[in-house]
Structure formats: C-alpha cells, structure tokens
Specification:
Layout: H1 8-25, E1 28-31, E2 37-43, E3 46-50, H2 58-69, H3 73-83
Antiparallel strand pairs: 1-2, 2-3
C-alpha cells in the first residue's frame, strides 16, 4: 500500500530534507592528488578524511580482495551498467 500526494511544494521540501540528511549521514568519495580514493565526512562539526574505506575491518577488506580474484569477480565489477541493459 502506498500514498501518492501530487504536490510540487511538498516534493521540493522532501527532496531538500533528504539532501540535508544525506550530507550528515554519508561519506563523499573523491580521488586525491595521487588518484587514490578518499572518504570525506563532517562528524560532530569536524572535517574527516579517511584513506581507507570507513567502518570496515580487516575481514571486510579481505573479502573484497577475494571477490576480485574469484571466478565471476569481473561480473560483479561490471554488473549494474552492463548487465541491467538486457
């Protein structure tokens, strides 16, 4: 069940609130000068720069590396763009 409200004003307010919330709750991923990934966030008013994927431990890093070399790993890397067009 859902609810449909046809109101451009409410849609705009909702979108603005989602964007404000995302800035507080997510990391922004960029490339540094050397071409490496870095994760940027504002936490408790402080600008944080992470050079490794945040909130992941060694086990998750190990699994990510294993998925790259296992058969089918290349499929997952190409998946959304290439395999959803069928």
């Amino acid at each position: 069940m859902g609810l449909l409200i046809d109101s451009p004003i409410m849609a705009k307010q909702f979108l603005e609130e989602v964007c404000r919330s995302l800035q507080k709750l997510t990391y922004k991923v960029e490339l540094d000068e050397g071409g490496h990934l870095q994760w940027l966030a504002t936490i408790d008013g402080d600008e944080i720069v992470e050079t490794r994927e945040p909130l992941t431990g060694w086990w998750r890093h190990l699994l990510a590396r294993m998925y790259r070399v296992l058969p089918g790993g290349q499929l997952w890397q190409k998946w959304p763009a290439e395999y959803l067009d069928d």
